[in-house]
């Protein structure tokens, strides 16, 4: 029954795409094909205030040094609405691909706003009168559609086909993505997804994944995939006070945290909404990774991950706090630590100064005067010593009428007293 419904949706989508080609396109380029969305998310209003997450992370500080230019970030999610005002700049959102509906549909449309929200946090442009913007506005987005309502509002996996997810990850790696954002999590280790992640990691892709939202208390570590796979950067969520968001999972797979509670995100068509979940914390890290990969293009994916963790701001739990990883991602430090931010100052031209002959003559005279004074002092001291010696010798010479004197004879040494020979007495036996 499900397959029949999906085939009917696919047929309607293909017919709609053909009709758009014939008519030249009477609707927005990224509008969902008719029948593709069985329960589309309603339109949301624009929010003009600057959200707290952008204020706390302040990625604009890093923009003079990197805006993510030249870095392709894959959003493996519910698609991306490329017609959103903050995502419609030419070249920002690529056509991508839809793996959820079989066929040759692009991934640049979204029925539920989940992927559009993730893409906006990563790379939304600034527009007049709106405080929201992405972390890396010059990064390009590759939309890879792998779900419709199979991703819950908080990013948890509901009924996603593991093979579809794996196909999307492999496609993103083959398209040259340098960062892949996986805002999904589940307790099961699927070999297909594990293999696809390993494939992407082997191609030097930095894979960023949500840690999950299933934590009920802090008593135990819950499994979470794909965050727990080797080479994946797992991201937990914090609130405006920096505390772990209720539900953000705790485990060794949590490498970093980012804003994830009541954060603002873009929605399909044109608007914004406040959302919760590690799904929306992960793209703050993915966007920061794009900034780093643009600023430091020679770094490998593991080196980028290490840099993101090494430059994180301390979190409540400290460096080893459960659920906080290395701390709160810091876009500015991640880009600028070790970067020479100042242009080298030009050395002043060397202008030789003319010799001051009068000064040199004065120095030579002063040096000569000092030498003469030193030798006169030595001579005067010698005269004093000689006079003292004469004062002792002359009176004695006159008394003896200058006859030679005799030295007193040495006293005779006392005769040595030798001890008597010792006689050893041996007692008779």
Automatic annotation (TrEMBL):
InterPro entries: Peptidase_S8/S53_dom, Peptidase_S8/S53_dom_sf, Peptidase_S8_Asp-AS, Peptidase_S8_His-AS, Peptidase_S8_Ser-AS, Peptidase_S8_subtilisin-like, Peptidase_S8_subtilisin-rel, T7SS_pept_S8A_mycosin. Its main location: membrane. Residues 68-327 form the Peptidase S8/S53 domain. Residues 1-28 form the signal peptide. The chain crosses the membrane at residues 375-394. SUPFAM superfamilies: Subtilisin-like. It is a single-pass membrane protein. It comes from the Bacteria. The keyword NAD does not apply. GO terms for cellular component: plasma membrane. The active site is at 77 (charge relay system), 114 (charge relay system), 279 (charge relay system). GO terms for biological process: proteolysis. GO terms for molecular function: serine-type endopeptidase activity. Pfam families: Peptidase_S8. Belongs to the peptidase S8 family. PANTHER family: CEREVISIN-RELATED (PTHR43806:SF11), PEPTIDASE S8 (PTHR43806). This is Type VII secretion-associated serine protease mycosin. It comes from Saccharopolyspora elongata. The lineage of its organism: Bacteria, Bacillati, Actinomycetota, Actinomycetes, Pseudonocardiales.
